[in-house]
Structures are given as C-alpha cells and as structure tokens.
Amino acid sequence: MVNIILASKSKIRKEILDQNQILSEVEPSNVNEDDIKKSLLSKNATPEIISKNLAELKANKISQRNYDKLVLGADSVIDLNKELISKPESREEALNILKKLNGKKHYLISSVCISKNGAMIWNYTDKAALTMKNMTEQELKNYLNKISDENLYAYNVYQIEGEGRSLFSKIEGDKDTIMGLPIKKIKEYLLKT
User: Fold this and answer.
1) 72 CB burial (10 A radius; 0-12, 13-18, 19+)
2) With CB atoms 3.0 to 4.6 Å apart as the test, which of 11, 53, 74, 79 could cross-link to 107 if both were Cys?
3) What is the C-alpha to C-alpha distance for residues 193 and 184, in angstroms, rounded to an integer?
4) Tens place of pLDDT for every residue, the chain, 193 residues?
C-alpha cells in the first residue's frame, strides 16, 4: 500500500500501520502539545477540536519538510464530562487521573489527519466510550506498579492492549480508535488515493 510518513513516535501507531501493510517511516513532530492545549482550552475548544487540531498541526509540520509525500498525524485525548485529561507527568498525577476516572464512563477521542505539501487533505475523528470499574486506591496503585514509566508517559494512564484492559467493566467502540489510530478509515482513504 501507499508509503506514508508517521508524524509520531508512538510504537503502537507504527505497529498498527505495519500490521495493515501500510509502509511508513517515522518522523516525530515534537509539537509542544501542552501549550497548544492551554491555548485552545482558553478559547473553550472541545476535546474533539483539540484532538483534531493537534493531529493536523503534527501532520502539517512534518509535511512542510517532505514535499509531495503523505504525512499522517494523530492525537488522542480523554474526555471526562467535557474535561480534557492529558498524559500524566508523574506517577502521582497518573494515580490522580485514575482516581478521577474510577467508576465513571469517559470518552477516548482519536483524531487522524493526512497532509501533503504542508496542508491537510483529509481528517477523521472517532470516539470510544470506556467505563472504568470501581476500584480501591490500592488496586489502582497495584495496576500502576505493573506499567513501565515509558509506557505510562507515552500512552496515558492505561494501555488497553495490555494491562489496561483489566481496568474496565465496559468498552464501546473501535479497538484501533482506543489505541490511537482508527486504521479502517485511514485505509479507506488511502485506497482511494
């Protein structure tokens, strides 16, 4: 299939592309997500808009340096009652996020954008609903002890493809969306190009 540049250092996203026979090379955008999120939140942007804007910004940044190539940008955010939950920067913050999600339904929003010559040519946003079990603080700590720092800070507080599955009583939505790359829609678009 089409050769594409992945504007992300996410190992999971690269694996999903590989599993779907989409040739890709990795060139992380290194966009300062926190500053962009703060700016968009100050303008009352929804989690969906924030996710889409970040995916587009990442793709466009790398696309400007790679003329005539397709660049895939992606971003995922957690929406808890319209509150944006970002990746933790410490284990204490990760525990606080899990406490906040504990026993509640929240949405994981994943956006993807394909850019060419510095401009978006296609984008898609999908949402999955996840309901977390009611867990004790000790159970949450035990879960976090099983997660490496690298995975915790790269992929938010749960890895649905691994240990994170045990946190949920109900998952509604596409597995690939939850893992950060709604691949079916990406493939549909690439097959048309």
Assistant:
1) buried
2) 79
3) 15
4) 568 999 998 888 999 999 999 999 999 999 988 899 999 999 999 999 999 999 999 999 999 999 899 999 999 999 999 889 888 888 999 999 999 999 999 999 999 999 999 999 999 999 999 999 999 999 999 999 988 887 776 666 777 777 788 899 999 999 899 888 999 999 999 988 7
Q: Sketch out the chain's domains with CATH numbers.
A: 4-192 (3.90.950.10)
| CA-based nearest residue to 113, from 186, 56, 188 | 56
What are residue 130's DSSP bridge partners? 106, 171
Q: How far apart are CA 157 and CA 146, in angstroms?
A: 12
**Residues in the chain, overall count:** 193
pTM to 2 decimals? 0.90
Nearest to 3 by CA among 99, 68, 88, 91: 68
Q: Tokens 């929003």, residue?
A: 109
Please identify every residue annotated as catalytic.
75
Residue 127 in tokens: 């949402």
